[in-house]
Specification:
- The chain folds into two domains: about 130 residues, Glutaredoxin (3-Layer(aba) Sandwich), CATH 3.40.30; about 45 residues, Antioxidant, Horf6, Chain A, domain 2 (2-Layer Sandwich).
- It is built from six helices and ten strands.
Length: about 210
C-alpha cells in the first residue's frame, strides 16, 4: 500500500485534533482540555511487549491521576480486538486496564501524529508517546522501536518535571527527581549575573549555571 505518513507534530505547537472510537466510547482531544494527556501507540493487540507496557501504564495510573493526567492508548486494531485483549489481560495477568484505547483502523490519528514510520511497518504504529498539556499543546514526544518496551517510570518523572518547570519558571537537570535542585534561567544582563553570583539563594558553578531548591 502507499504510505500515507504526514510530517511529525512539533513540540510547543497545538497537538493534532482527533475524534476517534475507543473502548470507552468516542473521544476527542477537546475532551481532555484542562488536564494533561499522555497519548501512546503500540504496534498491535495480543503482543507480549505491548502487554507488559499496558500493565505498567495501569500500575502507574494512580500516579498519573495525581498529576492531573489522563492516559489514552492507540493501535491500528478494532475496538473488538481491544476489548478482547483487555479481557485477556485481566484473565491471564489479573490486571484490569482502566484507560481507553483508540481503535484506529483508518489510521487517521496515527498519521496525524506521525506514528507510522516507513521501514518499521506500513500498517502498524511504532511505540510513540505524546505529552499534551491542559491547553492542548504538545510538550514532549518519545519514540521507541517495536522490539523494545518503554519505561513508564520515566514518563512519570518527565511529566512531573514538565509541571515543575511550568509552575516555577525553571528547568530541570539530567534525571531530575522531585526534591532535587532545579536550574534557574540564565541572567539576561551583566548586573543580574553579578547579583546572582553574590546571592546566597543560588548554588552557582558560574553565572550561567545556577541551581536552587524549591
Amino acid at each position: 500500500m502507499e504510505n500515507q505518513t504526514v510530517g511529525l507534530p512539533r513540540i510547543n505547537e497545538p497537538a493534532p485534533n482527533f475524534e476517534a472510537v475507543t473502548t470507552h466510547g468516542v473521544k476527542k482531544l477537546e475532551d481532555y482540555r484542562g488536564r494533561w494527556l499522555i497519548l501512546f501507540s503500540h504496534p498491535a493487540d495480543f503482543t507480549p511487549v505491548c502487554t507488559t507496557e499496558f500493565m505498567a501504564f495501569q500500575k502507574h495510573k494512580a500516579q498519573f491521576d495525581a498529576l492531573n493526567c489522563e492516559l489514552l492508548g492507540l493501535s491500528i486494531d478494532s475496538v473488538h480486538s481491544h476489548n478482547a485483549w483487555i479481557l485477556n489481560i485481566k484473565e491471564k495477568f489479573g490486571v484490569e486496564i482502566e484507560f481507553p484505547i483508540i481503535a484506529d483502523l483508518d489510521m487517521k490519528v496515527a498519521n496525524a501524529y506521525g506514528m507510522i514510520h516507513p521501514g518499521a511497518a506500513d500498517t502498524s504504529a511504532v511505540r510513540s508517546t505524546f505529552f499534551i498539556d491542559p491547553e492542548g499543546m504538545l510538550r514532549a514526544m518519545v519514540y521507541y522501536p517495536m522490539s523494545n518496551g518503554r519505561s513508564i517510570d520515566e514518563f512519570v518523572r518527565l511529566l512531573t518535571a514538565l509541571q515543575t518547570a511550568d509552575e516555577n519558571g525553571v528547568a530541570t537537570p539530567e534525571n531530575w527527581q522531585p526534591g532535587d535542585k532545579v536550574i534557574v534561567p540564565p541572567p539576561s544582563t551583566t548586573e543580574e549575573a553579578k547579583a546572582r553570583l553574590a546571592s546566597d539563594e543560588y548554588e552557582c558553578a558560574d553565572f550561567y549555571f545556577c541551581k536552587k531548591s524549591l
